[in-house]
Design a protein that fits this description.
The chain is α/β, with parallel strands linked by helices. It has 6 helices and 13 strands. It is globular, with a radius of gyration of 21 Å.
């Protein structure tokens, strides 16, 4: 079984976020980048398939040379090889077109992507890839098992979970639940040294339209000061909850 894991290069959630050029561009200065958490759950599950079922695991990213440390970390975790599409990920459709081309040329059986990246939270790329290629697709996937060319997956739905049987080739939008946080792997010294000799293939992008662009970013408004209401003044509390907070 050939597995492709899509890796997004995203800011660490502890990073301080700023914008430049009249708030139209993300300022990367001083920002630490990591593997997108949803993708890391998917990568760990792919390594499980590698160890238990003999799968080969390739990781792929659309980005410039600055994303290579993130791909090297994925190799250190256990991926067999990596692909970097040498392009700026301008929007979801553009990224989906590039990844679809990699999948088509690579003949992958299972494609694991995070259901969304934690930078822009678009949540559109896995479904777009499936639409372009005509592959089966399961989003918000929390469990996946493969037997031959058959797959059984569990996904989150409103109010519960749904179990789905389908067949390969398959694309999933994964999230926490594919593995638990305690099962995520930290590269050890042997993995780091081995990653240096693993193939990281750089390919040029195909022509694809960019249909959207960021016009302006805006930070959330600062939290207002806390108002303390006397326990004896319930009328004032109800008035503030109704007219100011608008929660009742």
């Amino acid at each position: 079984m050939k597995i492709l894991v899509c890796i997004s290069h995203v800011p660490d959630t502890t990073s301080k976020i700023n914008f430049t050029n009249n708030d139209s561009e993300f300022d990367t200065n001083g920002v630490q980048f990591v593997i997108n958490p949803n993708d890391e759950f998917g990568l760990t599950r792919a390594i499980w398939f590698q160890e238990k079922q003999g799968a080969t695991v390739t990781v792929v990213n659309v980005g410039g040379p600055e994303t290579e440390p993130t791909l090297r970390k994925a190799l250190a975790i256990g991926a067999n090889d990596a692909i970097r599409v040498n392009a700026t990920p301008t929007d979801g459709f553009y990224v989906a077109k590039q990844l679809a081309e990699v999948i088509k040329n690579g003949g992958y059986d299972l494609v694991i992507a995070g259901k969304e990246s934690l930078d822009y939270n678009g949540g559109m790329v896995p479904g777009m890839i499936a639409g372009i290629l005509g592959f089966n697709f399961i989003n918000a996937c929390t469990e996946i098992a493969i037997e031959g060319t058959n797959a059984k997956a569990v996904r989150e739905i409103d109010g519960g979970k749904e179990t789905i049987s389908t067949s390969l080739p398959l694309i999933i939008g994964g999230q926490k639940g594919l593995v638990e946080e305690k099962d995520l792997r930290i590269p050890n010294m042997r993995g780091i040294m081995t990653a240096r000799t693993k193939a990281l293939n750089i390919i040029e992008p195909i022509d694809a339209a960019t249909n959207t662009k960021a016009v302006q970013f805006e930070k959330p408004a600062p939290k207002s000061a806390v108002k303390l209401i006397s326990a004896d003044n319930l009328d004032e509390l109800i008035n503030l909850l109704h007219n100011e907070a608008k929660v009742i």
